[in-house]
Amino acid sequence: MNIKEEKKMAFQKGFLWGGAIAANQAEGAYLADGKGLTTVDLLPTGQKRWDIMMGNLSSYEPLEGEFYPSHEAIDFYNRYKEDIALFAEMGFKALRLSISWARIFPNGDDAEPNEAGLKFYDNLFDELLKYGIEPVVTIAHFDVPVNLVKNYGSWRSRKLVGFFEKYATTLFNRYKDKVKYWMTFNEINMLLHLPFVGAGLVFEEGEDKKQVKYQAAHHQLVASALAVKACHEISPDAKIGCMLAAGQTYPYSCNPDDVLDAMEKDRDSFFFIDIQSRGKYPGYAKKFIKDHNITIEMEATDEEILQNNTVDYIGFSYYASRTTSTDPEINKTTSGNVFGSIENPFLEKSEWGWTIDPKGFRITANQLYDRYQKPLFVVENGLGAIDIPEEDGAVTDDHRIDYLNKHLQELSQAIDEGVEVLGYTSWGPIDLVSASTGEMKKRYGYIYVDKDNEGNGSLERSRKKSFDWYKEVISTNGENL
Fold first, then answer.
1. Could you tell me the pTM of the whole model?
2. SS3 label, residue 135
């Protein structure tokens, strides 16, 4: 059997090709139609952004003189029909998106949901389904209603479990006839690395941050399990998954100390998915909690809830692999999707210093499938790069085509090796606000949006060269890679 024949076999009939966006990076209209403030609405551009993302928030209101890119974003809230028509032109089978919690419950603890918010997503899903595009919906994608942060301490409080369960149940009841694929928390392991982004955590002076983060993690994990339970009861034909910011950690050398360190760094992330997929705290997590004098407050039924309500599939993002070394002399680092790492001398980097490792995509997919034996769903993968339109407006993004083509070739190989993959929704099919930096110039899309880092621009949409490339990938079900 030749390679071309193998590729033809790789992507099964019904494979969900598409793209992925998030409410807080695309919608804008940040207080429209009754929406409340969310955590991301307090993240400005510039130097303060990173400090706040780490949990050092100085104000529960946007400040004068700061630019908050989420407030307008790319105005998907008002332009979704235009954008979905472009996605349909590419042949999308799925669009992964998120619902803004504060559009549904503006304060998070409201007695009744906001009908205007519910109606917006009704209309959005109807527009997708009109074109035969499956909504793949993330319930919480890096946004918590600010009221829950200010008055309850966000996910450090057990009360958030109940608020989230009510929110999720509201969604399942409303959209059970429109949504077949759900995910609970986006990149749930980000809680440990960007606690304000991942869980709305704001730290007090001298507080034990590990204690707070792992207690918040437990609350999110219980809330996720309760959402799985509700989904299975309300919409038994639907599938609900978890979502991991993935990327295997390589040991810099074959020194066993490096290998052990790589294993432990991967476990920081697997901790969440182990519980969501297997239903219990793994032994290594129990040891870590004990060694760091962390006390997890649990209710009597928590372990049963986790055990009986595991996810149907594993969603994951993949942008880069990571490398670690225990040798202090090997200390040259590079950037990544929040996860910085030792620079891998065998790999190239993007303009933002992110390692480019297509084969790592295949390794990571195999690693996850071997570990969990559940279907995978690639819900983020892409290249953030500077795209400068030519005089006629054309954007020739061969660098993006090359990146995605190589990654999809490796995903094809992983599938051929027996990895079960439901679909592939590349990150940012349309240019949107960068989650980490708040920039617009860090572009991922097949569709160019005329807007700059300062918020200037017409917001006009135009097709890049990669638009036609991805259209052909979808129409041939990956045979042209």
1. 0.96
2. strand
Domain ranges of the chain: 3-475
> Given pLDDT bands bounded at 50, 70 and 90, which one contains residue 338?
low
CA dihedral 451, 455, 458, 464 (to 10 degrees): 10
Q: How far apart are the C-alpha atoms of 253 and 243, rounded to whole Å?
A: 30
Q: Which CATH superfamily is domain 3-475 in?
A: Glycosidases (3.20.20.80)
Q: What are the E-state strand segments in 331-382? A: 333-334, 341-342, 348-349, 355-356, 376-380
Nearest CA among 151, 167, 148, 156 for reference residue 39: 148
Q: Which residues are catalytic?
A: 380
Q: What is the pLDDT of residues 36-62, one digit of tens each?
A: 999 999 999 998 999 999 999 999 999
Backbone angles phi, psi at 345, to 5 degrees: -70, -10
Look-up of token digits 């339109």: 389
CB atoms within 10 A of CB 64: 5
For 422-457, give the DSSP string. EEEEEE-SB----TTT--SSSB--SEEE---TTS-S
Alpha helices in 187-255 (DSSP H): 195-199, 209-234
pLDDT digits (tens, 9 = 90+) for 394-433: 999 999 999 999 999 999 999 999 999 999 999 999 999 9
In the 8-state DSSP scheme, what is residue 354? B
* Residue 342, C-beta contacts closer than 8 angstroms, at least 6 positions apart: 252, 323, 324, 325, 330, 331, 332, 333, 334
Residue with tokens 């992507």: 11
**How far apart (Å, rounded) are the C-alpha atoms in residues 140 and 188?**
9
The 10 Å Cβ neighbour count of residue 333 is 12
The strand pair at 249-251 and 322-324 is best described as parallel
Burial class (CB in 10 A: 0-12, 13-18, 19+), 295: exposed
Side-chain-facing half-sphere of 281: CA atoms under 13 Å: 16
